[in-house]
Design brief:
This is Tripartite tricarboxylate transporter TctB family protein. This protein has 181 residues and is mainly α. Helix content is 66%, strand content 0%. It has two domains: 59 residues; 93 residues, no CATH class. The protein has six helices and no strands.
Length: 181
């Protein structure tokens, strides 16, 4: 009698990307624990103070790191598809451009360019429409945060036009007040 051959599945190699993620999780957990150790102990009554939750988060991050490392070493993660690098380059490029321009061009222009480059990364091809949309949305966000909530965001030419327009509107509706500061 011929016995059927036992089918063995080839053992998968360790997932090095997942091991890198595990190392990052462990490093983040260590950083959170170190930062928590610098906080005061507080909580004289219940022994729960400002260190408690950060330490709990650090322990959870370390646990996730160990779990991820075990799964990665056993090769238990599913195979990932090959990623298209061009969209990632568009988005990262947009972030770099925003960081380079935000101080000089202002929030609306820099963030509008980031919006357009991110839209391009996600497959939108009309850069002019994406730029216009990005500028308008960013200008509205700047107005809400900088003028209504009084937070400091970098102002560029678009923001200065909005400030001058707001001053003109304030003067038009209240002529006795004079130019607003």
């Amino acid at each position: 009698m011929i016995e059927p051959m036992a089918q063995t599945t080839p053992k998968r190699r360790p997932d090095w990307a997942a091991l890198l993620v595990a190392a990052g999780l462990l490093a983040l957990g260590a950083l959170v624990a170190w930062d928590a150790s610098r906080l005061g102990s507080g909580g004289a009554y219940a022994r729960i103070g400002p260190q408690t939750i950060p330490y709990a988060i650090a322990v959870c991050l370390a646990g996730l790191a160990v779990w991820t490392a075990i799964e990665a070493a056993l090769g238990e993660f599913p195979q990932r598809e090959q990623q298209d690098k061009l969209p990632i380059l568009w988005i990262v490029g947009g972030l770099v451009v925003q960081m380079a321009l935000i101080k000089f061009a202002g929030f609306s222009i820099a963030t509008g360019i980031l919006f357009a480059m991110t839209a391009r990364g996600f497959g939108r091809v009309s850069i002019p429409k994406a730029l216009l949309s990005g500028f308008l949305i960013s200008a509205a966000v700047w107005f809400v945060f900088a003028r209504l909530l009084q937070l400091t965001l970098p102002a560029g030419p678009i923001e200065r036009l909005m400030i001058e327009g707001a001053k003109l509107l304030a003067t038009a509706f209240n002529p006795q007040a004079g130019p607003a500061a």
